[in-house]
From TrEMBL:
SUPFAM superfamilies: S-adenosyl-L-methionine-dependent methyltransferases, Winged helix' DNA-binding domain. Residues 294-466 form the O-methyltransferase C-terminal domain. The keyword rRNA processing does not apply. It comes from Clonostachys solani. It comes from the Eukaryota. The keyword Transferase applies. This is O-methyltransferase C-terminal domain-containing protein. Transmembrane segments: none annotated. PANTHER family: O-METHYLTRANSFERASE ELCB (PTHR43712:SF16), PUTATIVE (AFU_ORTHOLOGUE AFUA_4G14580)-RELATED (PTHR43712). InterPro entries: COMT-like (IPR016461), COMT_C (IPR001077), SAM-dependent_MTases_sf (IPR029063), WH-like_DNA-bd_sf (IPR036388), WH_DNA-bd_sf (IPR036390). GO terms for biological process: methylation.
Length: 500
């Protein structure tokens, strides 16, 4: 497996002096700018040095130098990277980025270098925009981002995108006849959406599609994504404050923002609510598929990078706990031809899995589905690997510890416990886009389940709290993947085991 040691940045001092604190604050202030560096590997200058770098005086003399402000430095960076990106698109016959209705739904796949330019532009434009808006405006208008969710929520719920023709505009008055949404609300929702390039008004009173609104008309998983986020997570988010004020420990699955929002406090966890509502459950499933099928979450990262050769050689066993319909194991079984797999999930998930689990007979005969509640003791004894993918982040620490404890009676010496989840890095060391995404996911886990994304140290502590006989081996991540592999080995007679 390609082991990318997760870079751990500075460690905070336990008793920093005021000067140290000042220095730390200054450093952090610089980090909003420097976040990019972790990804794009700018030259060796510090951001401060970059901001203060000098240029020759206009007359060409090197004697007189001028400071380049952060403003200009960012603007130049954006210009330079945009030129590189455009050249790449032209050289490869790829379309120019556009908001137009016919523009591709996704930015084209790029070379590593062109992708770096793209990300630099994404981050530097945000940085530059924030800089020129200024702190007060950033806070004042930043807090209004929930209104973007509101307008998308209404557009999506009323299916307005499907009412607008793809090839021409439609008079607002005519559109009003096609929906039960009242005229004033339809107009204001559309016009608010337009501020985010969702729909446009090419001539006053006529509505047409942009590429984003077209996707909202055509892309089922994206509709699910917007529906789940705006109708389930958004109300839950608005109730988190109430939930944590009333239950500050914030660990219970039935005392979350979601429970407050949907009046299920101390009654049932979110999963049970969805279990009773097939439409909502399907929407959440589609939304998850839309996220986890996307860039940086492909199962192939794990399949390609995690080394099971030792286990395959001895025809060992991997148990995928909460493995849904077994799509990870069927992919693993195509690569590792000798070992066996047990996919465990709740009975109704197992019942709804396709049978046979794969058309490939040599795969199907080695992948078994088993109904098992992971809050009960693990029934498959002496397996070589126990695997949790997208499971631990659904649970607060007491629950997560329980999941690990439930393995203990089944474990043989050397058994691996492998978690495939986000692993949070120190603030400012992740590329800013990934950091935003992972920290947003962390907030979503709070809203819905009082759960959390974890750092490597927090995973280490989970294993330690579950049983001292777990030997934590660390976290690793393959290039291009947002998910990490976090691993511990069962060692009933503790000896020193080297960390990865
Ligand atoms: C977020 S999904 C992860 C699925 C899969 N591991 C993946 O990588 O996409 C969580 C899975 O855990 C299952 N699950 C939830 N509660 C469970 C329980 N108590 N016991 C077993 N499986 C459970 C769900 O049915 C679902 O398939």
């Amino acid at each position: 497996m390609t082991k990318l040691r997760i870079p751990w940045g500075r460690k905070s001092s336990t008793d920093p002096s005021t000067n140290e604190l000042d220095a730390e604050v200054k450093k952090q202030n610089r980090q909003s700018f420097s976040g990019l560096r972790s990804l794009i590997n700018w030259d060796t200058e510090t951001p401060m040095e970059q901001n203060q770098s000098t240029t020759s005086a206009p007359n060409g003399s090197n004697n007189k130098v001028q400071e380049v402000s952060q403003l200009i430095s960012l603007a130049k960076k954006i210009g330079a990277e945009a030129e590189k990106l455009e050249a790449y698109l032209k050289d490869n016959g790829l379309p120019d980025p556009s908001f137009g209705v016919d523009a591709p739904g996704d930015f084209p796949k790029l070379s590593e270098e062109a992708q770096r330019s793209r990300l630099e532009i994404v981050h530097a434009t945000k940085e530059l925009g924030d800089l020129v808006r200024g702190p007060r405006e950033n806070v004042r208008w930043g807090v209004w981002s929930f209104l973007d969710t509101l307008s998308l929520q209404v557009v999506n719920n009323y299916g307005i995108a499907k009412l607008v023709p793809l090839d021409k505009s439609i008079a607002l008055a005519e559109l009003q006849t096609k929906t039960t949404l009242d005229p004033v609300n339809l107009a204001r929702i559309l016009r608010h959406s337009m501020t985010n390039h969702v729909f446009c008004e090419p001539t006053p009173g006529f509505i047409a599609h942009t590429a984003s609104s077209r996707l909202l008309a055509q892309d089922g998983p994206l509709q699910d994504w917007v529906g789940f986020n705006s109708e389930d997570i958004f109300p839950a988010a608005a109730s988190v404050l109430s939930a944590i004020k009333t239950h500050p420990e914030a660990t219970s699955l039935t005392r979350t923002g979601f429970n407050v929002a949907f009046d299920t406090v101390d009654k049932e966890p979110m999963f049970a609510t969805f279990g009773k509502d097939p439409v909502r459950a399907k929407r959440m499933g589609g939304a998850m598929a839309s996220l986890t099928g996307g860039e940086g979450y492909e199962v192939q990262h794990f399949v390609d990078s995690y080394d099971l050769s030792e286990i395959d050689q001895k025809a060992g066993v991997l148990v995928d706990i909460g493995g849904s319909h077994g799509f990870v194991c069927t992919d693993l079984a195509k690569k590792w031809k000798n070992m066996k797999f047990v996919v465990q999930d709740l009975a109704k998930t197992v019942d709804s899995a396709p049978k046979p689990i794969s058309d490939d007979e040599s795969v199907a005969e080695r992948v078994e589905l088993q109904a098992h509640d992971f809050f009960q003791e693990q029934p498959v004894k002496n397996a070589d690997v126990y695997f949790f993918r997208w499971i631990m982040h659904n649970y607060s620490t007491p629950y997560a510890i329980k999941l690990l404890k439930n393995l203990v009676p089944a474990l043989k010496p050397g058994a691996r416990v492998v978690i495939n989840d986000h692993c949070l890095q120190e603030p400012g060391t992740e590329n800013p886009w990934d950091e935003k995404l992972m920290r947003s996911m962390d907030m979503v886990m709070l809203c819905l389940l009082n759960a959390q994304e974890r750092t490597e140290d927090e995973f280490r502590e989970l294993f330690r709290a579950a049983d001292e006989r777990f030997v934590f081996k660390g976290a690793s991540r393959s290039p291009g993947c947002r998910m990490s592999v976090i691993e511990a080995v069962w060692n009933p007679e503790p000896v020193e085991v080297e960390e990865m």
